[in-house]
Design a protein that fits this description.
about 170 residues; globular; about 45% helix; single chain; about 15% strand; alpha/beta
Length: about 170
């Protein structure tokens, strides 16, 4: 990637977006933004109580991430965002058309196990089923790559950086 791109590290909860995102940003030499920081407090409270977000809950969050991505256009950046539906990714791309996506994928049992060992995160394991039910993997016409989450965070970030460079 010669021109720095803005990369969205996406996937269901527990795939390691918050861990892999900063590692990938360091490999690409660009800043990282934590997507959860863009959530309004009402969204965090809702998820903390085990209630999945609605699309109406997500629009302001996606718009805030899109605005950050737009500001980073041409300069590069990495932001974590579940971006589970094509419509969510389309909304992000409408704000920042050159976005690339790294879809962190993996075995549900592995992801659930990792989630169950997290401390201090508002997303309960109980919402994993709703995340998988909502997930629409990257389409063939979407700019991005899929990277399996098996292995260490460093391995995952390395594979993501190589896959982005090869595209």
């Amino acid at each position: 990637m010669s021109t720095p791109h803005v990369v969205v590290v996406m996937g269901v909860a527990g795939t390691g977006k918050t861990t892999v995102g900063p590692l990938l940003a360091a490999r690409l030499g660009v800043p990282y933004a934590e997507g959860d920081d863009f959530h309004p407090q009402a969204n965090i409270a809702k998820m903390s109580s085990g209630t999945p977000l609605t699309d109406d809950d997500r629009w302001p969050w996606l718009d805030a991430i899109g605005a950050w991505a737009q500001l980073r256009a041409g300069r590069g950046g990495v932001v974590s965002c579940s971006a589970l539906k094509r419509g969510y990714r389309d909304r992000l791309r409408s704000a920042a058309p050159g976005l690339l996506f790294v879809h962190l994928t993996g075995d549900r049992a592995l992801i659930e196990d990792r989630m169950s060992h997290r401390e201090g995160h508002f997303m309960p394991t109980a919402l994993l089923d709703s995340q998988f039910a909502t997930l629409q993997p990257l389409g063939a016409d979407e700019a991005g790559v899929a990277v399996d989450v098996a292995g260490t965070p460093e391995d995952i970030a390395d594979r993501a950086a190589k896959a982005l460079a090869a595209r």
